[in-house]
Amino acid sequence: MNNFREKAEEVAKKLQDYHKTVDGWTVTKKTKDGETISYRVSNEFDGYLYKGECIIDAPPATVFHYVDPVPEGPRGNWDSDMKKIEILEWLDKPDLRVNRACTASACMGLISPRDFVDVILTKETDSYISTNGVSVSYEKCPEEKKYVRGWNYPCGLICEKLPGEPNKTKLVSLIQPDIGGMLPRSLVDQAIPGSMSAFFTELKNTLKKNEASKS
């Protein structure tokens, strides 16, 4: 368990470095709603690190509740890419766990369903709440035939608190997945920015609906 915590804490530091590094990013998608998707060459593997950013009209704790990949949370209900979320083991409640996430097929079925087994650390500071994840080898969860096992290099979601604006959140998504299989890199790189943008849009729509239902 100590090794998993050390690994996850290292991921948390890396994600903050990625987030704070301004230079070297190439913008690949920008929407009228203020969503920006950028990428740069990954330091972890032969692929890209992607960063998605947007402002959400909800408090950081609310946004985190909706994006945290836990089976009892709302993420599995609104995120169309997420088909199944499991906690395989709580390593240290309430902040350190081993998760399994199963994703839907993509690109009109050209990318088949994947699953990822990650150690995830939840971290809250005065300035943000975040998930910090990285894939791990976990003997208790062997591969299944209906999923291609992917591998997440340091990744996560940062719900950044905005000074003076308690009802707004800057949401930052950082991912660098090796989705496995025999797919051409160009197909994967084409699919990821659209998927990240759709994630932001679905989240915003869900929050709007839920707020409207409360009023």
CATH class: Alpha Beta
Largest sheet, strands/sense/barrel: 10 strands, mixed
User: N- to C-terminal separation?
Assistant: 45 Å
Q: What coarse outline follows from CA principal-axis ratios?
A: globular
CATH level-two architecture = 2-Layer Sandwich
- When the domains are counted, the total is 1
Average pLDDT number = 93
Helix content: 25-40%
Structure description:
The chain is α+β, with helices and mostly antiparallel strands and 215 residues long. The protein has one domain: START domain (Alpha-D-Glucose-1,6-Bisphosphate, Chain A, domain 4, 2-Layer Sandwich), CATH 3.30.530. 28% of the residues lie in helices and 39% in strands. The termini are far apart.
Tell me the layout of helices and strands.
Elements: H1 2-20, E1 26-30, E2 36-41, E3 48-56, H2 60-67, H3 75-78, E4 82-92, E5 96-103, E6 114-124, E7 128-135, E8 148-149, E9 151-152, E10 155-162, E11 165-175, E12 177-178, H4 185-214
Parallel strand pairs: 6-8
Antiparallel strand pairs: 1-2, 2-3, 3-11, 4-5, 5-6, 6-7, 7-10, 9-12, 10-11
Looking at this protein, list some descriptive labels.
215 residues; ten-stranded mixed sheet; 4 helices; Alpha-D-Glucose-1,6-Bisphosphate, Chain A, domain 4; globular
Give a summary of the structure in a few sentences.
The protein is of the alpha+beta class and 215 residues long.
